[in-house]
Structures are given as C-alpha cells and as structure tokens.
Amino acid sequence: MDAHVARWVTQVPDMDPGVEGATTRMQHFVRELRKADARAHAGLDFTLEDSNTLHALMIQPYPVEATPAQLADVCHVTRAAMTSRLDRLVEGGYVTREVDPIDRRRVLVRPTQKGRETWLDYLHAGMEREREFLSALSPRELDQLNVLLRKVMISLER
C-alpha cells in the first residue's frame, strides 16, 4: 500500500496521501475479508451466496421472516436470482417458503432450525476470520480504530 500511495502521489501532485492511503487500505481490507469468506465456502454445497441470503433473512427487522422481494433488495440481486437462491435453501432444508395466511398474494420465507444453526456456525466462523484479520491491533488500537471509523460513518449519515 505504501508503494501504491507513493506512486500515485508523484503521478497526481494534488492527491492527499492520507486520504488515498486510508481509502485504499480499507478497500483492500474488505476485499481480503471477502476472499477469505469465499474460501471458507469453496467446494461446499452451502455457497457464499446461500450464506449471505440466510444472513439477510436472520437479521431482518421483522420477526425473522421476509418476502423474496425484500431479500432480493437487501442482497442487491434480481428477484429471479433470489428465486434460485431460495430454491437451493429450501431444497437444503435451511428455509421454508409459505403463503402468507393474511395476504395470500405474498410468500414468506422463514429459517428452519437447521437454517438457524447453520447461520450461527457461519457467523461464528466469520467472526473468527475478522478477529484474525484485526489481530495485529492491540485492544486499545482496535478501540481507536472503531472510534475513528464511527466518526467517519456518522459524517456520511448527515
């Protein structure tokens, strides 16, 4: 990263090396974390997309249920892609699809017990990967990083 920043600062004299360094490092961190998540699912029947869809369902603001359209929106995929994902999850026994008893035009997706357990397993494995990625920081440094990132995020919400 240092070489990247140094190169671009010489190429673009008005570039702020602090801003370039911070954004490039954050992008690289997230990219490496996503690669690690993908490696964790490599060769498994339960794909990273399946895991992301199940996660989206489990963190819904509703009582752990959502429509396929809501899940498609949260996962930033088309409704057709979500249908394929849900077909795999239903077939694997991770979720159910049921007609909404109040509005029969709607379909509700709910996790099964297997889905809940699988989500928790992958959630804990992901937390461990994140912990490993940040293990270079002391607890105090991690707190400082959180304070600084929170400050940036709050400024973006205004």
Written account of the structure:
With 158 residues, the protein is mainly alpha-helical. It is built from 7 helices and 2 strands, in the order H-H-H-H-H-E-E-H-H. It has a two-stranded antiparallel ribbon with strand order 1-2. Strand 1 (95-99) and strand 2 (107-111) form a beta hairpin. Helix 1 packs across helix 2, helix 2 (17-41) packs across helix 6 (113-133) and helix 3 crosses helix 6. The radius of gyration is 20 Å and the shape is elongated. The mean pLDDT is 93.
Observed structural traits:
two-stranded antiparallel sheet; mainly alpha; 7 helices; elongated; single chain; 158 residues
Helix content: 55-70%
Helical/strand content category: mainly alpha
For the termini, the CA-CA separation is: 30 Å
The average pLDDT is 93
Coarse shape: elongated
Specify Rg, calculated over alpha carbons: 20 Å
Order of helices and strands: HHHHHEEHH
Beta-strand proportion = 5-15%
Annotation field: number of helices: 7
Strand order of the largest sheet: 1-2
Task: Give me a quick take on this structure.
The chain is mainly alpha-helical and 158 residues long.
